[in-house]
Amino acid sequence: QDVLVDVQNVKKYFPIKGGILKRTIGHLKAVDDVSFHIHKGETLGIVGESGSGKSTLGRVILRLLDPTEGSIQFSGTEISHLKRRHFRPYRRDMQIVFQDPFASLNSKMSVAELIEEPLLVQTSLTRLERKEKAIEIIEKVGLRAADRLKYPHEFSGGQRQRISIARALITNPKFVICDEPVSALDVSIQAQVLNLMKDLQEDLGLTYLFIAHDLSVVKHISDRVAVMYLGRIVEIADKHSLYSNPLHPYTQALLTSIPVIDTDENPAPKEEKIKLTGDLPNPANPPSGCTFRTRCPLAHDRCAVERPELTELEKGHFVSCHLYTQEK
Ligand code: SF4
Ligand code: MG
Fold first, then answer.
1. What is the pTM of this model?
2. Which spans of this chain does the record mark as coiled coil (predicted)?
3. Which is deepest, 6, 91, 157, 296, by most CB within 10 Å?
4. 151 CA from centroid of ligand 1 (Å)
5. Which residue, among 210, 214, 183, 231, has the nearest Cα to 52 in the 3D structure?
6. Which of 323, 325, 327 to mutate to test the pocket of ligand 1 (most atoms within 8 A of CB)?
7. So where are the chain's domains?
């Protein structure tokens, strides 16, 4: 299978300024040495609490933020060092759908203007060609052609998210980063939008990076899932291995918080599950060794002094936790 997006050892550090002179006194390691790849046509889910660095990672891949270090390849081309101007040709192929459609849509622009704007900026299509494309994509996302003339506030949250999706897809991208696109929606609407995104993926041959803060949202849409904690991937695996055999205590805790319906075919697990306690530590001052140790019920001496490496335990199933590796 072809790799479309290849991210290797990417870091994004933000300087922390302090003192009267506002000098740099440290760094917030929002993304700290992250590597993964996404195949063509695949969906990689990325899950983590707010503050885990998942949105920053998405913005770095799309070059909305410059990476501090590391390699990002898109279709075999290194894009991590491209200046804004040189990145423009790739921008059409790589789009993003944000969480809050109300905040990301300019309320003074009509739906037609909003959806056609990327074509205006990124292509040289004529007015008529833009209009035709807009009508085509509006209908594809389940709105009516006549809705073009309305304004965002005339739509429900779910419909507004469809407008954002249309805006992202109108340039025929190959790759779409979905940054919590359904988190702000009611549960019943979430399923509709997720199904739409899945249908569009098949229809248009899209590759997705799907960011979410809980494992239930990405379960149906993802092929593989990565779990992030304080800027690092702590576990990454094929969806089925991750949900049936979570190895990292943090992943286990996240799965425990998804309600299980106890039926005969699907009995709720009896054994004591790992509960997540406490808050995410300050990312500007993370714990030594394993950064999860302050919340991990299985933490032991080694966890405070040695940082666990992401290690492949089964084919394609990687975890970073000392429970699975020998002390060197
Ligand atoms: Fe818990 Fe230690 Fe594993 Fe970290 S390395 S997850 S603290 S057991
Ligand atoms: Mg976010």
1. 0.91
2. none
3. 296
4. 50
5. 231
6. 323
7. 3-93+173-260+268-324
